[in-house]
Amino acid sequence: CNNNNNNNENICIEELIAKTEFEYIDNFSENKFFITVPTGLEFISIEEVKNKLNADKTISTQGKVFFSCPSTKLFNLLQLRSIEHVFVCVARFKNIPTKKPLGLNFIKHLIINKIDWQQSLSTWKQARSVNENFNIAFSNLNQSDNIIIDHKKNQEIQIQINENLSKKARVDNELNVNNSITEFDKLTFRVTCKRVGSQDYTSMEIAGSIGAALLKKFPNWKVDCKNHICEIFVHMYENNDIIIGITVSDERLSNRNIVASARGALKGCVAFAMLELAKIESEMIVCDPMCGGGSIPIEGAMIFDEHSAVTFYCGDKKLL
């Protein structure tokens, strides 16, 4: 492995691949996803995933939760309140070499030869369709106040999206479009990488290597860092594990409660966690005398419908 000859390096990569422990999260049944959450609040997200998606198995790492989600629950997935972003889980590999160029060539080989891109892209397309349909339906509500979605309207949107997805699935099945990678023959994409550790290569070099591998795998794809359709997300950990995903949510879902600039405003997912920890029940009164930008009462109003009879009182010194 210390020889720089290309043939010897290829042999070395093959030897490393044979010894590497591959983990694809294959112990999940279908539609593999992971979500990013505030570090330390993973247990809140796990409970929400189990309750709202009926997920019987979850795996958590620092700031991430992995699980499977059936197609009928994709709308609920994008409505989770404890999360920041949603990703399709493409693959997870362990023990990536840390030396350059061996490590980068190793990652390229994995991208080209060890990933079922057809399955991952099909899952991404379906989840993306749900996300776009919800955003369109939300923008068409024509409410005077865009902070809070009416719970009845929310249910109507969910029914409409599920009907559209069922209809589209029948058409796709008849046309047999999901059985061929040519469905994703032309895409604009970018690679975003986060890295922690003492590897010889940088985040930019990892992103560049993966981008080059994808262009070799899909010659008709084009790189577009600003107006891309598909974002490949990569996270390399200090222990040299690497996670590869495809971004479903373009916007940070935790910013849903921020409608104006407010110094020190809480993220929506943090406000949700605080409300969950408070164990608020029906007919309770919640008082937030130093609400600042109003993150907690806004989040509470989005969680509890009129039948729960939960009342929020809030204010702040600067607003008086």
Task: Describe this structure as you would to a colleague.
By secondary structure, the protein is of the alpha/beta class. Helices cover 39% and strands 17% of the residues. The chain contains 9 helices and 11 strands. Strands 1, 2, 3, 4, 5, 6, 7, 8 and 9 form a 9-stranded mixed β-sheet that branches. α9 (295-303) links the parallel β10 (285-288) and β11 (311-314). α1 (6-19) crosses α4 and α4 (102-113) packs parallel to α7. It starts with 5 loop residues before the first helix and ends in a 6-residue tail after the last strand. The model is unreliable at 141-149 and 167-179 (pLDDT under 50).
- The helix tally amounts to 9
Query: Pairing-aware structural class of the strands and helices?
Result: alpha/beta
Order of helices and strands: HEEHEEHEHHHEHEEEHEHE
Shape: elongated
Number of strands: 11
What value does the Rg take, in angstroms? Answer: 22 Å
Percentage of residues in DSSP E strands? 15-25%
Mean pLDDT: 78
User: Helix share of residues?
Assistant: 25-40%
Low-confidence stretches: 141-149, 167-179
Termini Cα gap: 70 Å
Main beta-sheet annotation: 9 strands, mixed
Topology:
Elements: H1 6-19, E1 22-23, E2 32-36, H2 42-53, E3 59-61, E4 64-68, H3 74-78, E5 85-93, H4 102-113, H5 117-139, H6 151-175, E6 188-195, H7 203-217, E7 222-223, E8 230-236, E9 242-247, H8 268-277, E10 285-288, H9 295-303, E11 311-314
Parallel strand pairs: 6-7, 6-8, 10-11
Antiparallel strand pairs: 1-5, 2-4, 2-5, 3-4, 5-9, 8-9
Short description:
With 320 residues, this protein is an alpha/beta fold. It has helices at 6-19, 42-53, 74-78, 102-113, 117-139, 151-175, 203-217, 268-277, 295-303; strands at 22-23, 32-36, 59-61, 64-68, 85-93, 188-195, 222-223, 230-236, 242-247, 285-288, 311-314.
